[in-house]
Design brief:
Layout (H helix, E strand, L loop, with lengths): L19 H5 L6 H8 L1 H9 L10 E7 L2 E6 L2 E2 L1 H14 L3 E6 L5 E5 H17 L7 E5 L5 H12 L2 E4 L6 H11 L3 E5 L1 E4 L2 E4 L1 H7 L8 E5 L12 E3 H4 L12 E2 L3 E6 L9 E5 L1 H14 L8 E4 L6 H13 L3 E5 L10 H9 L3 E4 L1 H10 L14 E4 L6 H11 L6 E3 L34 E4 L11 E6 L9 E2 L3 H8 L11 E5 L5 E6 L3 E4 L2 E4 H9 L4 E11 L3 E10 L9 H15 L7 E4 L13 H8 L14 H9 L4 E2 L2
Parallel strand pairs: 4-17, 6-7, 6-8, 8-11, 11-12, 16-17, 16-18, 18-19, 19-20, 29-30
Antiparallel strand pairs: 1-2, 3-13, 4-5, 9-10, 14-15, 15-23, 21-22, 22-24, 24-25, 26-27, 28-29, 30-31
Helix pairs in contact: 2-3, 4-5, 4-6, 4-11, 5-6, 7-8, 10-11, 13-14, 16-17
């Protein structure tokens, strides 16, 4: 894919300037771009000074052996101390760290002093179980407070945690435990989802049945459902609750491994992304402060992600706590017990900053704006988007119906591998452009290049690369340096490339086009699935769309679309609706982008993190047998789609 052939089809003229009062008091101003450009390493050193170091670093960056970076070399700090103890010592022990809300409606309010006591007790409990600095601890839990407590306890003693999303299968959990050679697993009897308890302990039992490394399973009682009990199992309330609530936090090297997080959706051996201590905490804390304009004294912040994904690591646990923020943490789904639950929580806790995924936003569009309209969302002042490119129409709906047409939307691009936000508007600086990720943050060197690694001009498209190391970057793939080099650094010499396509618009702003694997070659034109999906979602009757390329004897590949109509769309069963959509795409993007087939569906195949499984849709479009569907929220969706596809309208 080169800039000569990547079609640059979607145009967006709407602009939203920063609210004047936010701009006047913004944490980070436009000067930051110049400061970082003048002295990039000096800029990151100043951000590191926002943390408390037991020993100051000698060298900001060691890049003598690329692509293996070392940041803040010689420095020592403790992540848990920075996230908890220093706030208590500063007199803020009574400040709320988490407003926790269980799906059934039970609640817990956890102050920084509470968190300090619980983390110390959990750290002492891990030590009693024989966990030592450098050991790996697997965590497989629902969204309950013991999850961040366990992560912080690991960070405190220098154990490396590996959180596995609580929706993964026993086999997925086993492969991650084996790859990390974890010593213990921390889990719960179960959790609540869509009004019902689900089991976790039974999955762990299956995963560790023949483990060569697991010595204990530590179990939180959440649902009180019956569980099998083995000789190595330990109840959290019996072990942790009797521990001392004091623990001195030792300093760890800036490059000490903080956590391993396995990337989802891969086949074969999972990729264990390794993040270390000083650089990671520096960048997640600064980006949380800068991108969300966090005012810890007055803001109430809510990131709706699951901690099992990197968004939860960086922007529910480490970034917010390092900044002394008050956060909302919610266990359940947005439609339980009703479709207004999230807006109810924003109203209840007077949330000021809300960070969620385009998938969720498009779901709310499908349900209708009358649901959020029933709730007082006037406390909100900044909205964020994460996980995939946001369609312009979803951006505008989010801003209008959730943000009251006054809140800036920060559309953030980053990855498990980058550790922290890399490209985003700054809410007090940037005039937002629906659908555009805009510019790299100060201190980040991102660009779009062609297949010869040359920077493309404004208006061109190609590969998104990072040209300079950044503090929160992955250090390697756990146990596999060769795979790290091959996966991220082999396509272009000394440039990081993880597979995303992007374009620069005429203003030089960046638009993410999804994985280059999701670019379709139609009659010699490379067309991004993201742009065709955005064109479909811009139709007033469409809430969500997924687009894939299917082999075509005439055009090489043809565009096959799957759409979910909005609840207010009316009759969408006939050929007229499909023709209306095909003509709409042609009008927005050009005739070559008109889908060969469009299927109207009630739901799309999504992972439990909310990402559309386009691989499965490609299998259906190509009439192949379906691959692994165990990570889907509802595998029956694929049966329905497979049955309907032959009847979907084709372009004659």
């Amino acid at each position: 894919m080169s800039h000569e052939t990547l079609s640059n089809l979607l145009h967006e003229a709407r602009r939203f300037a920063p609210p004047p009062e936010l701009a006047a008091e913004a944490n980070v101003t436009g000067d930051a771009y110049d400061d970082a450009a003048d002295d990039r390493l000096g800029y990151w050193a100043r951000q590191a000074e926002r943390l408390t170091w037991a020993k100051r670093w000698d060298t900001v960056l060691d890049w003598s052996n690329p692509p293996f970076a070392k940041w803040f070399v010689g420095g020592e700090l403790n992540v848990a101390y920075n996230c908890v103890d220093r706030h208590v010592e500063a007199g803020n022990g009574g400040k709320v760290a988490y407003h926790w809300e269980g799906e059934p409606g039970d609640t817990r309010t956890i102050t920084y002093a509470d968190l300090q006591r619980e983390v110390a007790k959990a750290a002492n409990a891990l030590l009693e179980l024989g966990v030592q600095k450098g050991d790996r601890v697997a965590i497989y839990m629902p969204m309950i407070p013991e999850l961040p407590v366990t992560m912080l306890a690991c960070a405190r003693i220098g154990a490396t945690h590996s959180v596995v999303f609580g929706g993964f299968s026993a086999d997925a959990l086993r492969t991650r435990i084996d790859d990390a050679q974890a010593k213990i697993v921390v889990t719960s009897d179960g959790g609540y989802r869509r009004g019902k308890p689900y089991a976790l302990k039974a999955v762990v039992d299956e995963a560790v049945a023949n483990s060569a490394t697991i010595t204990n399973v530590l179990v939180v009682r959440r649902t009180s459902q019956a569980v099998e009990w083995n000789g190595t199992d330990v109840w959290w309330h019996e072990l942790v609750d009797r521990q001392s609530d004091e623990h001195d936090a030792p300093a760890h090297d800036a490059e000490h491994p903080l956590y391993i997080l396995y990337t989802s959706g891969t086949t074969g051996k999972p990729k264990g992304i390794l993040h270390t201590t000083g650089g990671y905490l520096t960048q997640v804390a600064w980006t949380h402060h800068a991108v969300f304009d966090l005012k810890p004294e007055t803001d109430v912040y809510w990131c709706s992600a699951d901690i099992g994904w990197v968004t939860g690591h960086s922007y529910i646990v480490y970034g917010p706590l390092a900044n002394g923020a008050t956060s909302v943490m919610y266990e359940g789904t947005p439609d339980t017990p009703h479709r207004g639950r999230w807006w109810e929580l924003i109203e209840k806790y007077k949330v000021t900053i809300f960070y969620t995924a385009p998938t969720a936003i498009r779901t709310f569009m499908k349900w209708g704006e009358d649901i959020p309209a029933q709730h007082d969302l006037s406390s909100l002042r900044v909205l964020g988007s994460v996980g995939e490119p946001i369609n312009p129409e979803a951006y505008v709906w989010y801003r209008e119906h959730i943000g009251g047409d006054r809140c800036p939307v920060v559309d953030t691009w980053w990855q498990t591998e980058t550790g922290a936000i890399m490209i985003s508007p700054l809410p007090g600086v940037t005039s937002g452009k629906p659908g555009a990720a805009m510019r790299p943050l100060p201190g980040i060197a991102a660009d779009v290049v062609d297949d010869q690694a040359q920077s493309v001009p404004d208006g061109g498209g190609g590969f998104l690369v990072l040209k300079e190391p950044w503090p929160s970057m992955l250090r390697t793939i756990w146990g596999d340096d060769d795979r790290f080099i091959e996966t991220y650094w082999s396509r272009f010499e000394n440039l990081y490339f993880a597979g995303d396509g992007a374009k620069k618009d005429d203003d030089g702003d960046l638009w993410l086009l999804g994985r280059v694997d999701d670019v379709m070659l139609v009659s010699g034109h490379n067309i991004s699935t993201t742009e065709v999906e955005s064109a479909l979602v811009s139709h007033p009757k469409v809430a969500e769309a997924a687009v894939v390329g299917a082999t075509d004897p005439v055009t090489g590949q043809a565009i096959v679309a799957f759409v979910i109509p909005r609840g207010s769309a009316g009759n969408v069963d006939g050929d007229d609706f499909v023709k209306e959509l095909r003509d709409h795409v042609a009008k927005v993007l050009g005739a070559i982008t008109k889908p060969r087939q469009i299927m109207v569906v009630p739901e799309l195949p999504k992972t439990r993190s909310g990402k559309i499984m386009r691989r499965l849709l490609r299998d259906v479009a190509e009439n192949r047998s379906l691959g692994d569907v165990t990570t889907l929220t509802d595998s029956s969706v694929m049966d329905l789609i497979a049955e309907k596809l032959p009847a979907a309208k084709s372009d004659e």
